[in-house]
Write a structure and sequence with these properties.
Layout lengths: L18 H20 L10 E6 L4 H8 L7 H4 L5 E8 L2 H5 L9 H27 L4 E2 L18 H7 L4 E2 L5 E2 L6 E8 L15 H5 L4 H5 L5 E2 L2 E2 L1 H14 L20 H4 L9
Antiparallel strand pairs: 1-2, 2-6, 3-6, 4-5, 7-8
């Protein structure tokens, strides 16, 4: 059995089959709890999800047409890349509920963003260490933030990478709706280990896109940047900058992802009669 960990035995030559997603997610969860304990942080996260994409998937090149012409390809981070491991760390419901009210984002929401980004940087390095110990190579994508105020896109869009890896489908709010909802953060790592790519989600999880109902995310946008008619990135950015003026380093908002039917869900069970949302 293969477990990504900073120490231990790493058999070589065993492919990362579907069951390994669970091993990766379990190890990430162990690392999350360890990080929180070492840094005396409140446990604001739920167990992570992990998915894999083929680094040679032509959709990565397609992002240069959909987003920005210089969007990175996995190969540019790691020559000979074969796989991209994308992982999602959900926030607890209380974090989201605290961000429902008010014009600015909540202090808890802003701190969750800052703490999660700091934690993810360490976790990705630990994952990379485990892959290298197993005989593989790994690279942590850089330049994943916004390019500039003039180009409000990323050269490595974590949401779109997660979409390629099969985490979910996009909602009206432009957020990726994973198996457990859309409240949380996506991260990724590139490796030359071979994996079996996860299938992309074909179902439409956004109720507005599916049948024209809901649209609550647009009604909750405090500036009108998001509507059923479209999305104005410039206005959204200005709102995020207003929040950053209150909470340095937290250029976020999040009003369009909380209190929704898709904020917290169980889409893995939904097809078998499970719940679609719990907000």
């Amino acid at each position: 059995m293969f477990v990504i960990a900073p120490t231990g035995v790493y058999p070589v030559g065993i492919p990362l089959e579907a069951a390994m997603r669970e091993a990766i997610a379990a190890e990430l969860w162990r690392l999350v709890r360890d990080y929180a304990a070492r840094n005396a942080l409140e446990m604001i996260w739920e167990p992570p999800l992990a998915r894999c994409a083929d680094a040679r998937d032509p959709l990565f090149a397609r992002l240069r047409e959909l987003l920005v012409p210089n969007h990175y390809l996995p190969e540019e981070y790691l020559p000979g890349a074969r796989s991209v491991i994308s992982w999602f760390i959900p926030f607890k419901k209380a974090v989201a509920d605290g961000n429902k009210e008010g014009f600015h984002c909540s202090a808890v929401w802003a701190q969750a963003y800052l703490n999660t980004n700091a934690m993810a940087a360490e976790l990705n390095e630990r994952l990379a260490e485990g892959i290298r110990a197993r005989g593989g190579r790994a690279a942590v994508p850089r330049d994943a933030g916004m390019i500039s105020r003039e180009i409000i896109y990323s050269r490595w869009s974590q949401k779109h990478v997660a979409w390629i890896a099969g985490h979910g489908s996009f909602g009206l709010n432009n957020m990726l709706i994973s198996d457990v909802g859309c409240v949380g953060r996506y991260y990724s790592i590139v490796t030359d280990l071979e994996t079996t790519a996860d299938p992309r989600v074909r179902e439409e999880r956004c109720l507005y896109k599916k049948n024209g109902t809901c649209g609550l995310c647009a009604r909750q946008c405090p500036t009108g940047a998001l509507s059923t008619r479209g999305f104005d990135r410039r206005i959204c950015l200005e709102m995020c900058e207003k929040n950053e003026a209150v909470y340095p380093g937290a250029d976020i908002c999040g009003k369009c992802v909380v209190g929704l039917p898709c904020s917290f869900a169980d889409y893995a069970r939904a097809g078998r009669g499970g719940r679609h949302g719990r907000d």
